[in-house]
Records
---
Amino acid sequence: MTTPLVFGLVIAAAPGATAQPALSGKTVEYNVLATESGGVDAAVAAVKASGGTVVKTNRAAGLLTVKAPENGFTARLATAPAVEVAAKAKVIGRAPALRQAPRTEVEKENKSGAAGAAKKAQRAAAGMDPLDNLLWGLTSVRSDLARTKQPGDRRVKVGVIDTGIDGNHPDIAPNFDRALSRNFTQDIPFDELGQVVDGPCEFRGCVDPADWDDGAHGTHVAGTIAAAADGFGISGVAPGVSLVNIRAGQDSGFFFLQPTVDALTYAGDAGIDVVNMSFFVDPWLYNCQNNPADTPEQQAEQRLITRAMTRALNYAHRRGVTQVAALGNQHTDLGNPQPDTISPDYPVGTEHPRTIDNATCLSLPTEGPHVIGVLSYGPSRTKADYSNYGVEQISVSAPGGWFRDYFGTPQFRTNENLILSAYPRHVGVEEGNIDEAGNITPQGVALGVQRACKSDGTCGYYQYLQGTSMASPHAAGVASLIVSQYGRFQRGNASMNPDAVQSVLEGTAFKIPCPVPPTIDYLDEGRDASFTATCTGNLQFNGFYGHGSVDAWAAVTRGRPFL
């Protein structure tokens, strides 16, 4: 699946040339960021002159992926005026392995004209689907009401930057834009330490099709945004918009820099109206400028991630992309972050504890420019214990599920407190929740896995998850309804200034005050003191709910004053 690399390579400077550091060691990948003044072509020339090979180029962000020996290469580039920063990305492994367990257990805690006529027809058909009674998030954001006026326009395109989308899932296929969908990743079977990352490649060449999802995360997100309202299975917040897979995540859930930047700039180039980003860019939960716990090489890597992501987010914003992101599941006030104990999370086992300086450390994309940060609450509208919070980064709040909601009642620790959405059948089989015949196993029943089948035998499957990853797509769905209602349409495409979309989203959000008292300790729910959170702010804006909970009905009926 991967070609073994040659180790011990040494390249000496040519006779008569200016003395340069010798190149030695195994071949590894680097990210190289070109200066905005010098340009990409000059950076490519500098890479070649320094003994590297350019593998991929993103001209919009000025980001290069390069292969070069692990020793001496960055020292050579240090004097190149066209290069802003260079840092090692990841080493390519060569050992056999099997699939890795998921990175996080937060999400699966329960494992313990003609156009006008068409538009009218679409609106008339957008009702509720049979399993929607299990989707408390839909009614919480009032999608059931909103779709009677605006179910979403097919010309509005929502990009899901995630682990992929199962474009053949019967609830997603009607709204899936196969032509625009892209996969910017390559499967990584194992890392340089021989540890499993994605496991064996499912397809020749180790590149999955653009309608495939082995992680299941992206499919769940996509279903919440825009599962079709067609009398079958479930429906999404905006059941009439189009879904575009812009894959940047590995099967295992890692999101590395180059694919993420490629996905963001593609969104800008392809006319995507809204993107959902339920992830952080690996391997650093926080990218710090000069954290003393990190090596100089690690510091350079984090500076590169920060600068490249800032460029990509700005590029997408200039091109009209509204960017919605999960606030994160580290139960921390992002204005006063707790110590980081999980970075770097790749390769697994290389992490070290770090004190995080809020002034010089950023979690990306959540803390990047032009990003709408979304907090997660449970069905009682209590802030979920795992959710990040704080007035510094929050924009709005949305249903993300909370397994431990309703303490002291029969609803405590029940699947129905989570968010139900689409589930790829092949992942369900692999995880033991669906058998080869398509039946839900006893394990799947215990986890609340659902099945819906059509008269022709086609079946769709659905699983319960929780997390800010599940809150963010509720907000992205409402954002796409705002574009559908107030955007401009020309030649089959929609457009709306992202700042205007954000203004309507925040302005029409349902105001929720801080709890009284404002501090919640979550001890009864079985959490330790590190989960204790204090809400600051007022009814108009606070650290637990931001400007309020997203409200689809208010957005499409009362949003115009905020334009």
Note: Residues 38 and 82 are 5 Å apart (CA to CA).
---
Amino acid sequence: MKADYLSRHALLWLFLAQVVVIVPRLDILPLWTALVWGVVVWWYLKIFRGDWRFPGRKVTWALAAIALLGIGFEYRTAMSLEPQVALLITAFILKLLELKTLRDHWLLLMLCYFLVACGFIFSTSISTVIIAVCQLLILLMAQQALFRPQAAVKPMLASTGRVFAQSIPLMLILFVVFPRFGPLWSVPLPGESGTTGVSDSMSPGDVSKLSRSSELAFRASFTGNIPAQPDLYWRGLVLDSFDGREWTRDRFGRRSEEPGTYTGPGVSYEVILEHGVHEWLYVLAPAEVSREGVSQDTKFQWLTRSALIGRVRYEATSYPEAGLKTALENYERFRNLQLPSGYNPQARALAANWRDLAPAERVTAAQRFFRSAPFVYTLEPPVLGEHSVDDFIFGQRRGFCEHYASSFVVLMRAAGVPARIVVGYQGGERNESGGYLLVHQSDAHAWAEVWLENSGWVRVDPTGWVAPDRIELGADIALAGQSGFLADSAVSLRRFSGLKFVYRLRLWLDQVEYQWVRWIVNFDSERQWDILNKLFGSIDNQRLALIILFALAAPLVISALLTVSWRRRKPAVAEVRAYRRCCDKLKAQGLERSAGETPGDFARRVALTKPELAEWINAVTEQFTAASYRPVGGVEHSEAVQSLRKLARQNPLNRRPRKPS
């Protein structure tokens, strides 16, 4: 059965549409998907040429079963978005083997549009939008190819451009005016199985792994000047439970009943967390956060009532001079002094020597110990034994921030000072032209807090005692020479920041991306309401309904005005334009062609009135007739048009007579 009812160029455009839709999803698809597409296309071409027949129902069901087994083996689960999209794309590919009618062709094109929309579930960056625009360009041209007898790229491209231009007013008005609804249903989003970046537990080596990644954690835009690098401690979670190897957080901590009242000057900023699953926020503590669905607990952690998925925006004001002052209850004191029995006897013995000192002096004693011993700050620490703290401070003495924070807290607890670990980020990269801060996963950091009478919880960062450049200069400068830094991001532009051109280009691209995320991706109902109030004043239900009706009607009216087919004069073809120029020359001689007068009648009238113009007007009429009745684009047509243009440039009164043949 030969599928000759589908034109060859329409089929090629359909193949191209499939390619531009599938290729951007190869990052989540199994590699065999591309091979399957190639085999299916080859198979269908055989059918199209009449060599093979369409597969039967048994073969179709067998292919579907094989695809299901392959996806199940690849992903090991069906309860996430990646295998669901992979299954849809695989079915989309196999649907080619059922392409028999125009309806099937339309169905494949509609699936292409749906898969383009699916791309925004995985990413909402401006690069994704550019890719989607290119995909839509190809899809619209593939759609037009169904109604054109032959390939015509330029007219198809022009028509596609008009469609885009007509859709812009509708898109802009609906974007600003149409209400922001919450999701009507929920599907497991990419990465929903676990959070990215800093986690709620820590064991030696966990934080150092993040230094291998160049991925962005969040951006922060400050109202005033960006604080100094040593003051940028982005507080995330408190880890206060230790089992000898791993630090975890207490998930049953009490929520703060009322937001704290802080004194001193405030630092206001806006934070936009990158795409992921977020159960806590990052602030420069102590801080007040302006966002619904989050609250602060007694440990100064800002936690969400339910996980926030995607990019998350919030505004905060920090009070760096206020400090984390709070009364220490008996349970908290007990919890922050607790150590597992039987672990790290050497560290316990060392800390016991400090118990006779005042609490602040015990911290100073630990500082002297870390500074006097030959500790090394490295991204690739050795594996520690069962007594991890003893092995670190008395043996290896090579580690990352979590090693120093963990060993310091163990020493403080053994010395009788309540202490805990805080994980988050320290520092960030400044985009001076954009006026904001970029905090990467490689800026992940762990530090300690000790409780001192009359001072509350005081931040102590033992990493600064061993590697002060990490705190004062930031991770990019302090860790650039380390072999493991950004090891998992070989093609990241951050690896080439030593080149000024690359550095400036990267920051400029990030600034464009940041503005896109800030004003487009994070354009939520709150911002929309503010804009509507500024444009239309107080908004009530009746006025909101009128605004929405106007938003729907106005673009349609604009599109109608742009597409309405007024009776207008079509541009003349080449031979008509040249003939008109010849007639204009005769008009200057007082010989004007009458309305409805044929070229032959006009030529005879000119020859009778002025015989000296007879030869020229007869030649003009002959070439015009030849050009009008020859196939456009042919050799004879082109030669006739060129002859007609040459006659139009001549002066008919000075025309040389033809030589007798």
Note: The chain has a mean pLDDT of 84.
---
Amino acid sequence: IDPAGETVTVTGSGFLPNAPDTSGTRPPLAGKFTGAYVVFGSFAENWKPSAGAPSSARKVIEQKWGVHEADLATIGGAARGGIVIAEDGTFSTTLTVSEAEALENGRWGIYTYGGGGAKYAPFETFTPVVFKTPSPIPAPTLTVTPNADLDPSVENVLTVTGSGYIGDGAVNGAYVLFGEKSVWDGSGPLVSAGWIAQGWVPASQIVDGAFTTTVTIPAGTLSSEGEYNVATSAAHALSITNRTLDAFAPVTVAAAVTPEKPTLALSAPTVVQGGEFTITGAGFPALGNVALVLHSDPVELGATVASAGGAFRFTGTIPATVPAGEHTIVATSGSVTASFPVTITAAPAPEKPAAPVCLARAVDGASFEWGVKASFVSYVQGGIAKGAVSGGWGSGSGAYSTETGNGRVSFGGSMHFTGHSGALDLTLSNPRVRVTGSSAQLILDVSSKGFNGSPDVNASGVNFATLSLSDASTSGSSISWTNAPATLTSAGAEAFAGFYAAGDALDPVSIRFPLGAEVPCDSSTDGLATTGAESDFAGLGIGALLLVSGLALTVIRRRRLIES
């Protein structure tokens, strides 16, 4: 069987009331022929009720109850998992078989045994179920362009294309890194230090296991003697434990060309008093100390060390006391000297400080990852509600201030929950995240179908959950929070049709804000943001309570039937 799940047909024969032991001991059919349970699950080797095995020896995943047709309505009908055992002792039904969490030392199979407390050994059968072994996930591959003879004196932008980035290791996306091969070779957890450039490809940007991104290598950071590569790894916590996305692509640097005589180049021909400058040199003694002095009245600017190829790059500051005019920077290493002219200009008069202005950063293409609540999803898709979950979250836009730690981003998309033959119909849509420092509000639009004549519910801007934000993670020009704990609010509990109480934990939330151009602050980013701009969902009232009470009665009846 495919471990992801298949529907199988189960037929039986010989399930006849030909012995007193086929009578049940529990309501609603106590003292009558109670047929048999037909179950898919994981059971212990010694599982039979007739041999005294307790219910803890049986882990039931899906269950049907076969009885005589006259008793079908008594146990709740087909909607409650009831099936008919014909007068000749035969039955036919279907079960959904998938690989779930197994009983310790249990055996997967289709089992039958006496229903309603009956302990009749002839009804106890076991048909084993074997799941397919999943195919191994192929190793990912990388392509880097350009990947040879990089010029170390200029900025290099590498295009990195990956394929085969699938499986559990790709749920958080992939890290893309550039550095010397000696930094990390994949033999242990990914190391964070020593890389020249680092990036992150979110899972939303990996399509069918493939992605394309760029890595920028600043000028002057490469050496012709170095050995470099582009590396990838599973992202976030998986970079420590999961090695399925480890891949490497070598990159070479052009051999250094030693000029006949030493040369210097200045970042700009003019530098203001007190201003910063960058000077590069070539043709100096390998690994030699290089002293930099401003003339004509000597002013020491600093010193550096040439590379094995005789090149250096130095960034320094022209003292504010140096007179404006024409000067010369002289570089000396041993007996080798080179010079370069520079014009020093007078520093402008200091301006009156401008009044502080609050600026935020525009957010576009934000990502939002949230499973709502795993137990609720399992309930909807399980044997009681027999429902479905569909939909997904879209990208978002808004603004965020790195100064105040406040912001608001709105996302698209929705999650739709249906079950109980349409009695449960709940949609959560258009999430908004309002960040205020170390916490955030999760705001949703909520729509639910009425039950037993109660009105439908359509509410916008429900303050659904409170997010607890730990220290933000920054990568490039983005800020993110991963697996932020989410707690249901009182308004969210009412909007959730009363399935859970205020304060209950929801699934954690992961959000990422790409930070774009500066924009003026507004009420959501200037540090004075309020939390009262959204509805508190106080208007659900009787409609939600009727929906809850109807569903609760359905759940209680189901649970009483399957207890064993």
Note: Helices lie at 238-241, 374-381, 490-495, 542-562.
